[in-house]
Amino acid sequence: MTNAQDQLLSLLVRDEPRVLTRITALFGRRGYNIKSLSVGTTEHPGVSRMTIVVHGDRGVVEQAIKQLEKLHDVVKIIDHSLEKFVDRELVLVKVAITPESRVEVRQIAEDFRSRIVDVGRHALTFEVTGDEGKLTAFIEQMRPFGILETMRTGRIALTRGSNADVPSHVYHEGETEALKPVMEGVEAREERARGVPNLF
């Protein structure tokens, strides 16, 4: 009997070419199923944040973490199962409409606090932000009307409050002890890169 469920990880990684390829290849080689993956810049130049949802049991995510720690591109790993966190996702949904269904579709969208981002004669496109459950519920409510297209960004997450992996006061008072491992890793790798002679 399996206890598979979604496991949520955040990675602070070097903002360099082919980092994403190396990380996804690691998961692929070991047969780990990535359910969603989102990447974006952080408040630290040269560091990106990658949020990965892996479907499997705890053993899967623990093995993934051990393998990720071996990659020089990975500065820090945050396992969100160990801390309280807040997560969000965005979806765009294009729904077919008729003169008869237009009012009902818009009412459902209003109930979900969604936003209309495109209007056509035969379709409306909605933007919805929230947790995974809210987005799934919205799509299911719209399905009877006819969903033409959807696009989900995948989940993004941060640890809550004082448990944050990088404390909130770092944005106002400079570096803290909690931030040192991140920045020291970046600076050390940059120094090593500068030390390599340019042969071209």
What is shown here, in short?
The protein is an alpha+beta fold and 200 residues long.
List the helices and strands and how they pair.
Blueprint: E1 5-14, H1 19-29, E2 33-41, E3 47-56, H2 58-68, E4 74-79, E5 85-96, H3 102-111, E6 115-119, E7 123-130, H4 132-142, E8 147-152, E9 156-159, H5 170-173, H6 180-194
Antiparallel strand pairs: 1-3, 1-4, 2-3, 5-7, 5-8, 5-9, 6-7
Q: Could you please describe the fold and organization of this structure?
A:
There is one protein chain. The protein has 200 residues and is an alpha+beta fold. It has 6 helices and 9 strands; from the N terminus they run βαββαββαββαββαα. β6 (115-119) and β7 (123-130) form a beta hairpin. The strands form 2 sheets. Strands 5, 6, 7, 8 and 9 form a 5-stranded antiparallel β-sheet that branches. It has a 4-stranded antiparallel β-sheet with strand order 2-3-1-4. It folds into 2 domains: 1-82, Alpha-Beta Plaits (2-Layer Sandwich), CATH 3.30.70; 86-152, Alpha-Beta Plaits (2-Layer Sandwich), CATH 3.30.70.1150. It comes from Deinococcus metalli. Keywords: Amino-acid biosynthesis, Branched-chain amino acid biosynthesis, Transferase.
